[in-house]
């Protein structure tokens, strides 16, 4: 059996742990740059506020209904998430962190020691609430897809726990789940399935395998179908998430490293973009060295999304191949600036920029080239990078940086007008008690 | 001009780790073999027995002076401990966090300050009291690095 533990309104809940005055009142947390709503309290949901609604559009409404607003505070959310995962580890050795606020627990090994799954799930929930102060919902089922589905239904129960053990329980849960809410169906398949009169998860599970194979993306669809029937097909893995709280699949994380940000204001100046890209490269290269890799390819990404037209998001990319795989920040910055030169156009407003390192290989076995660096040069560069990383780790991020990256608090950095303190991770901003 | 700050290079040997001797130290001539340091003292281990549920806070008020908790001290708060009568706790009162001593008698619960200037706070049935966590340690500096501050004890130096 698998359990899916999902933190309720996670960012809102984190804010409330340290600001009890926010409890019982409608509140929202905004995305990077205070762009749109990414977390809403139950009271805010009841007011009809929608996920992803642009902040500037709903601002009058928020003021009118005295809804509290916070900018996203990932230092706090990351620390709270880490604590939740640590506590989940008390309940089973196999915890798969699925996103910043969700984790799967493999309960297979507890078959004989935990006969009452509902009681166990209730204990998981009450322990997380007591130890960290975050309310959760727990769904338990024989497959991950069903656990996800159970979790969704658990949100509507008063106890916040739903266990699907018997076939009858499973059938009832499938019938209560609209097809669009099934994990893995997504926006693309839901309308197609509805046309074929497949309206609930139960409708899909009742179809023959051949139909699913033909109409639902082949093997992937069959796997999903089997999961709904209660046959586990999905692997247990450990994906990572980036600093924006966005999920990076484990496979992708091994093969590429990205760092990207949206700007507080759209940027036109080439010099500003240079600074931003150099800073992003520095962070990506740091990650690269931490996992002991070297990159062959560097991709520069520039986003020219106009506000309000989300569908026509335009991303311009330039791919640069490096003469030899490298983990040297200076080398990578040079490549990124060449890429910027190719992409940048005067008068165009850029909303987002980023870099992506790919073609990764272990750093200790680069292929030497006839006209490449000598082993001595490589060793010196490695020493320099090790010193750079050690200094930044000890004295704080960006303490030592390449001059082209500009100021420590850059002009392009995003808006975060309503950010709470880093209550748990900074001595200066530590939580205070009277 | 941007201010340029120079930092000394990091040496592994500068990490502040103190050796602890797990063998008893006899008086007299110790055996040279006994001088093996086999563990490092880790203050975290002592303060954070349950790191996932333990939080640090800075105290701002003077209501707990009598319990040895001063303004600007750090307190270590563990949420995993079930509070009982006599525990110093962080409670939520009127939407704010406050540190007080929890007192419980059959049928009565109140929060007690350790300072005469602060009256006890009786908790009636309808008042919304929540205990946030139990305070396990206070970290109180005895010496503050303030420019111009006198070295402690200098004023009481006996005159020659």
From TrEMBL, chain A:
<dbReference type="GO" id="GO:0006281">
    <property type="term" value="P:DNA repair"/>
</dbReference>
<dbReference type="InterPro" id="IPR050116">
    <property type="entry name" value="DNA_polymerase-Y"/>
</dbReference>
<dbReference type="Pfam" id="PF00817">
    <property type="entry name" value="IMS"/>
</dbReference>
<dbReference type="InterPro" id="IPR001126">
    <property type="entry name" value="UmuC"/>
</dbReference>
<keyword id="KW-0227">DNA damage</keyword>
<dbReference type="GO" id="GO:0003887">
    <property type="term" value="F:DNA-directed DNA polymerase activity"/>
</dbReference>
<keyword id="KW-0741">SOS mutagenesis</keyword>
<dbReference type="GO" id="GO:0003684">
    <property type="term" value="F:damaged DNA binding"/>
</dbReference>
<dbReference type="GO" id="GO:0005829">
    <property type="term" value="C:cytosol"/>
</dbReference>
<dbReference type="InterPro" id="IPR036775">
    <property type="entry name" value="DNA_pol_Y-fam_lit_finger_sf"/>
</dbReference>
<dbReference type="Pfam" id="PF13438">
    <property type="entry name" value="DUF4113"/>
</dbReference>
<dbReference type="InterPro" id="IPR017961">
    <property type="entry name" value="DNA_pol_Y-fam_little_finger"/>
</dbReference>
<dbReference type="InterPro" id="IPR025188">
    <property type="entry name" value="DUF4113"/>
</dbReference>
<protein>
    <submittedName>
        <fullName>Y-family DNA polymerase</fullName>
    </submittedName>
</protein>
<feature type="domain" description="UmuC">
    <location>
        <begin position="2"/>
        <end position="186"/>
    </location>
</feature>
<dbReference type="InterPro" id="IPR043502">
    <property type="entry name" value="DNA/RNA_pol_sf"/>
</dbReference>
<comment type="similarity">
    <text>Belongs to the DNA polymerase type-Y family.</text>
</comment>
<dbReference type="GO" id="GO:0042276">
    <property type="term" value="P:error-prone translesion synthesis"/>
</dbReference>
<keyword id="KW-0234">DNA repair</keyword>
<dbReference type="InterPro" id="IPR043128">
    <property type="entry name" value="Rev_trsase/Diguanyl_cyclase"/>
</dbReference>
<dbReference type="Pfam" id="PF11799">
    <property type="entry name" value="IMS_C"/>
</dbReference>
<keyword id="KW-0742">SOS response</keyword>
From TrEMBL, chain B:
<protein>
    <submittedName>
        <fullName>Translesion error-prone DNA polymerase V autoproteolytic subunit</fullName>
    </submittedName>
</protein>
<keyword id="KW-0234">DNA repair</keyword>
<dbReference type="GO" id="GO:0006281">
    <property type="term" value="P:DNA repair"/>
</dbReference>
<feature type="domain" description="Peptidase S24/S26A/S26B/S26C">
    <location>
        <begin position="24"/>
        <end position="135"/>
    </location>
</feature>
<dbReference type="GO" id="GO:0003677">
    <property type="term" value="F:DNA binding"/>
</dbReference>
<dbReference type="InterPro" id="IPR015927">
    <property type="entry name" value="Peptidase_S24_S26A/B/C"/>
</dbReference>
<keyword id="KW-0068">Autocatalytic cleavage</keyword>
<dbReference type="GO" id="GO:0009432">
    <property type="term" value="P:SOS response"/>
</dbReference>
<dbReference type="GO" id="GO:0016787">
    <property type="term" value="F:hydrolase activity"/>
</dbReference>
<dbReference type="Pfam" id="PF00717">
    <property type="entry name" value="Peptidase_S24"/>
</dbReference>
<dbReference type="InterPro" id="IPR036286">
    <property type="entry name" value="LexA/Signal_pep-like_sf"/>
</dbReference>
<keyword id="KW-0227">DNA damage</keyword>
<dbReference type="InterPro" id="IPR006197">
    <property type="entry name" value="Peptidase_S24_LexA"/>
</dbReference>
<dbReference type="InterPro" id="IPR050077">
    <property type="entry name" value="LexA_repressor"/>
</dbReference>
<keyword id="KW-0378">Hydrolase</keyword>
<comment type="similarity">
    <text>Belongs to the peptidase S24 family.</text>
</comment>
<dbReference type="InterPro" id="IPR039418">
    <property type="entry name" value="LexA-like"/>
</dbReference>
<dbReference type="GO" id="GO:0006355">
    <property type="term" value="P:regulation of DNA-templated transcription"/>
</dbReference>
<keyword id="KW-0742">SOS response</keyword>
């Amino acid at each position: 059996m698998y359990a899916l533990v999902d933190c309720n309104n996670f960012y809102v809940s984190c804010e409330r742990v340290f600001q009890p005055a926010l409890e019982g009142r409608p509140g929202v947390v905004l995305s990077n740059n205070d762009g749109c709503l990414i977390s809403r309290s139950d009271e805010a949901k009841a007011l009809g506020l929608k996920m992803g609604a642009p902040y500037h559009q709903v601002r009058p409404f928020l003021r009118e209904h005295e809804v509290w607003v916070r900018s996203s505070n990932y230092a706090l959310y990351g620390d709270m998430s880490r604590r939740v995962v640590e506590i989940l580890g008390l309940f089973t050795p196999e915890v798969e962190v699925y996103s910043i606020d969700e984790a799967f627990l493999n309960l297979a090994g507890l078959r004989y020691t935990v006969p009452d799954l509902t009681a166990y799930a209730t204990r998981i929930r009450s322990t997380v609430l007591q130890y960290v102060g975050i309310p959760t919902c727990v769904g338990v089922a024989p497959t991950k897809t069903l656990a996800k589905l159970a979790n969704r239904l658990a949100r509507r129960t008063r106890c916040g726990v739903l266990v699907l053990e018997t076939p009858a329980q499973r059938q009832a849960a499938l019938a209560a789940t609209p097809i669009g809410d099934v994990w893995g169906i997504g926006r693309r398949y839901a309308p197609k399935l509805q046309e074929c009169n497949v309206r609930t998860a139960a409708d899909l599970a009742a179809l023959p395998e051949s139909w699913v194979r033909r109409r639902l993306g082949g093997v992937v669809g069959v796997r999903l179908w089997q999961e709904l029937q209660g046959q586990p097909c999905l692997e247990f893995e450990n994906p990572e998430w980036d600093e924006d709280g966005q999920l990076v699949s484990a496979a992708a994380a091994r093969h590429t490293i990205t760092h990207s940000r949206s700007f507080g204001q759209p940027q036109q100046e080439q010099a500003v973009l240079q600074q931003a890209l150099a800073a992003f490269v520095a962070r990506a290269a740091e990650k690269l060295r931490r996992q002991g890799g070297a990159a062959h390819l560097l991709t520069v990404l520039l986003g020219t999304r106009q506000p309000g037209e989300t569908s026509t998001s335009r991303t311009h990319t330039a791919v640069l191949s490096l003469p030899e795989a490298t983990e040297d920040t200076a080398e990578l910055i040079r490549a990124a600036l060449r890429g910027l030169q190719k992409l940048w156009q005067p008068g165009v407003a850029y909303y987002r920029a980023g870099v992506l390192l790919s073609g990764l290989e272990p750093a200790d076995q680069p292929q030497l080239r006839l006209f490449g660096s000598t082993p001595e040069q490589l060793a010196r560069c490695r020493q320099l990078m090790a010193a750079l990383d050690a200094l930044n780790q000890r004295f704080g991020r960006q303490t030592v940086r390449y001059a082209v990256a500009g100021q420590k608090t850059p002009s392009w950095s995003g808006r975060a007008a309503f950010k709470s303190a880093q209550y748990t991770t900074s001595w200066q901003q530590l939580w205070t008690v009277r | 001009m941007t201010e340029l700050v120079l930092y000394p290079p990091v040496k592994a040997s500068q990490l502040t780790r103190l050796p602890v001797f797990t063998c008893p130290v006899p008086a007299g001539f110790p055996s040279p073999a006994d001088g093996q340091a086999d563990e490092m003292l880790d203050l975290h281990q002592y303060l954070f027995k349950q790191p996932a549920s333990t939080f640090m806070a800075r105290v701002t008020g003077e209501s707990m002076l009598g319990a040895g908790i001063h303004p600007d001290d750090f307190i270590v708060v563990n949420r995993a401990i079930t509070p009982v009568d006599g525990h110093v706790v962080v409670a939520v009162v009127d939407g704010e966090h406050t540190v007080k001593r929890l007192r419980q008698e059959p049928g009565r619960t109140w929060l007690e300050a350790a300072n005469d200037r602060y009256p006890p706070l009786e908790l009636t049935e309808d008042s919304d009291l929540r205990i946030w966590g139990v305070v396990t340690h206070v970290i109180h500096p005895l010496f503050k690095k303030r420019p111009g501050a006198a070295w402690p004890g200098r004023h009481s130096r006996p005159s020659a």
